[in-house]
Amino acid sequence: MDKRFYIGVFAALFAAFAFSLNFIVPFIIGDYSTFDFALFRHVVSALVGLCILFSEKCGVMHHLTLRNWLSATWLAFIGYVGYFLTVTGGAIFSGPVIAPAFLGLVPIVLAIVGNQRQGSLPWRYLLMPLTLVLIGLVLVNGTAFTAEGLKSFRSLWIGIPLALAAVALWVWFAIANQAAIVTRPEMPAGVWSALILVGGGILMLALYPVGAALDLFQLPKLGFGWDAAGSLYLWGTSLALLATVCGVWAWNVASRSLPVALTAQLIVAETAFGVIGGLVVHGRWPTGIECAGVAVLIAGVVLSIRVFHERQVRSGKALSQ
């Protein structure tokens, strides 16, 4: 039991690290748009997903039912395509600071909803970890609503609802994905991840004509050649493999091993990793408030792991008596 618990914890933290790499995307793709990057990344991820399915075709064909394909594609729409569109829209209309600040609500909302559904822990045990996570998020995002942070928005009336929609979509995805995994105990995590990856790639290709009509893609203008798009291809492939393929797989492993209330608090490490990555990209040292925020976030994560582990140990002892 302990081994499965710690594997789940490590997988959730790795997923948080992988997802945090999304924060550096705007700084590494040059003149190409985030939509160009998303299209290439999801297509590469879909190709990897197909390779996984075909490499294990002898053992996975009975999993490739219409119901599983439809469920995985729907989850890809909620958690990847829909989430990406709302996050990007939120950043465009409300600026690059406020939208991520609202996304900090995800672990709080997910932990509350997850524990309400599963009853993993009495609420008094969750109070302190959630409080630490909330304080950490406030400190890390403390500059979001200052006068300087509010200068970069186009329309808060559009941006904030889109950011809140992104929060709702990710919470919905996390709950629905774990429910789907629970109802498929015989399906390997890699196969389920591959189905989601392929679904996401198909959806991005289907949406390309719409995005091109709205002039959201720069690829047709800047060119598809290696000289022009080499950086996009290299970074897109790298992050497709690490942030998307490995991130989705690790999240599914964590979802199979841990209750939602714990994975929700572990995913808050994405914020800490994102802050560190952003500081590296910008080449500056963290402020005192940012250091305090990351430290409190880490404390909340560590306390969450300890609380859930102690509860699990007690439950195991009770069952053995």
Structure notes:
The protein has 321 residues and is an all-alpha fold. It has one domain. 80% of the residues lie in helices and 0% in strands. It is built from 13 helices and no strands. It is globular and about 60 Å long. The two termini are 16 Å apart. The C terminus is likely disordered. This is DMT family transporter. Keywords: Membrane, Transmembrane, Transmembrane helix.
Write the layout of secondary structure elements.
Blueprint: H1 2-20, H2 34-55, H3 57-60, H4 66-103, H5 105-118, H6 123-140, H7 156-182, H8 189-213, H9 219-222, H10 226-257, H11 260-266, H12 269-282, H13 288-320
Helix pairs in contact: 1-10, 1-12, 2-8, 2-10, 4-7, 4-8, 5-6, 5-7, 5-11, 6-13, 8-10, 12-13
Brief account:
With 321 residues, the protein is mainly α. It has 13 helices and no strands.
In total, the number of domains comes to: 1
* Largest beta-sheet details: none
Determine Rg (CA atoms, Å): 20 Å
Question: What's the overall geometry?
Answer: globular
How far apart the termini lie comes to 16 Å
Number of helices: 13
pLDDT < 50 stretches: 317-321
Q: What is the residue-averaged pLDDT?
A: 78
Helix content: over 70%
Overall number of strands: 0
Structural class: mainly alpha
Instruction: Output the helix-strand order.
Output: HHHHHHHHHHHHH
β-sheet strand percentage: under 5%
Organism: Rhizobium herbae
Keywords: Membrane, Transmembrane, Transmembrane helix
Transmembrane segments: 7-29, 35-54, 66-85, 91-113, 125-144, 156-177, 189-212, 232-251, 258-281, 287-308
Protein name: DMT family transporter
